[in-house]
Amino acid sequence: MLLRPFPILACSSKLQCALSKEDIEANHMLRAAELADKSAGLTAPHPNAGCVLAHGARVVGEAYLYAQGTTSAEVQAVERAGEHARGATAYLNLEPGDCHGDESAVKALKLAGISRVVVGLRHPLKHLRGTAVSFLRGSGTIVDILGEDQQKCLKIQDVLKACELVNLPLLYTAAHQIPFSVLKYAMTLDGKIAASTGHAAWISSKLSRQRVFEIRGRSDAIIVGGNTVCRDNPQLTTRKEGGHLPIRIVMSRSLNLPEIRNLWDVSSALTIVMTQRGARVEFQKKLLSKGVEVIEFDFLTPKNVVEYCYSRGFLSILWECGGTLAAPAISSGIIHKVIAFLAPKIIGGAAAPSPVGELGMVEMTQALPVADVSFEQIGPDMLVSGFLKEIPDLRVTTTNSLELQNEASKVEVTNACVSEVISFYKAWNPYGAFSNFSPHPVSIPDAEGYLYTWRSTEHFYQAQKFEGVQDTIAQQCVQSIQAAESPEEAARLGRTLERQRRDLVRLNWESTKLTVMYEALLAKFSSYDYLRKLLLSTIGQVLIEASPHDYFWGCGRDGTGFNHLGKLLMKVRNELQIQQQKENLNGSFMTSFQNHVP
């Protein structure tokens, strides 16, 4: 979540200034981080990766990972460089994280003849950390990791900070097992977020509000309290057509909320209301009838909420709540960063609310320090940001490199161990290839027998909702899904139209969607040998789609879901096993026949 530009070193082409090797490499690494940041806000937050291929100061190829489920930055950069990739150095802000069984990123670098790879950060996820580095080094490629193998000079520290900033959600989530949480508020110079009446529109300038929309677009979810819903009636959108829209979350123990509010309209963006068990049951039913998701907790706390969000796969959460909710969120230790917009206004009044409620501190020595503070003027306002929790340091020194090797060995052993149940969910998690969002195009014949290639099984599935519907809107949606660059975008397009125009969904969809999904999965795991082997390696184990909110395709929060995706994968596995047995039998027959031919 970047709030200031990268300090890329400048060099005039006219003067052809002679930069040192250190300056050149710093420039390339900063460029890789800058490229990686281009995908933030286009889809839901995910690992952000950039790649720069260069011979000295000359760049021959560069690219970034648009989203999970799309072609890796390394593969794209190699393709763009062509024959110029041979002998080049690759600069990566993040260690490649191939979790789909194909190792496409590292293999692309190796096959292209890359002579050296410079990595900004090791991958934060344990099941991926160090694997790409080991693969490359094992195949003879020189790999340097900033801050580990090189002198820790100031310039390297600047580059490392850039690499960290572009993947803050991933770093914090991996280190703390909760999403990266940012508390955002706007206040006057005298520390008020509203007048004594509660009126708060608008404290900050239009330019500052536009920045907030951008920050929202980089988040998986936005959290507000019931007071904010009652008082402000917010929309919590990014104010732009299309693109990623974060999920809106409302925390309210009593559910003493109005029946008509902007957040109850889920035609474009989803809303989740989190409350305590048994609160206003009839009102819960009304929310559910509007398409609002309701999650009950035995006791609603900020910590319980972020733990649930972690299980749902969220990487980044933006808290836009008032002081009443901000205080317990900070006290529970789940807020990592604070973003404050200071407007040049004074409102006064003892009753006017402040951005953070009572924390129980009676002395200034108890005040929570905010570290790594930055300042930026936005129009008439001043944007101040800083961290309440330090950025996790995943660098490895010579003293603990052995510890990392042991850790990697343990991960390999753990993955090799046979368990009765295999859970999968997000594409970057272990067994991410089982996700419909994995980067595996599938070719499936249409109704007329024409073989059409879809960018992922999710693309195919979402488009089939409107297959054969003779309506311009439905047909345009299918075309948009076909062109969607990522599975997230395909899912958003299909789900949004399904919510907005249920009448456009094909009449037999409920009775055919399992068949459609099975057809897509069978095509996917039959088309890729390494995927087929991966699925067959799970024979004897139960596959569970561990979605905490999907009770149809997944197991749901309490494990009572139908798990249809897991069941269909096991059905595909049985089909592939039968095919393999037939192939083995035919192979044995041919071998026996040939041995007996005189």
TrEMBL record:
<protein>
    <submittedName>
        <fullName>Uncharacterized protein</fullName>
    </submittedName>
</protein>
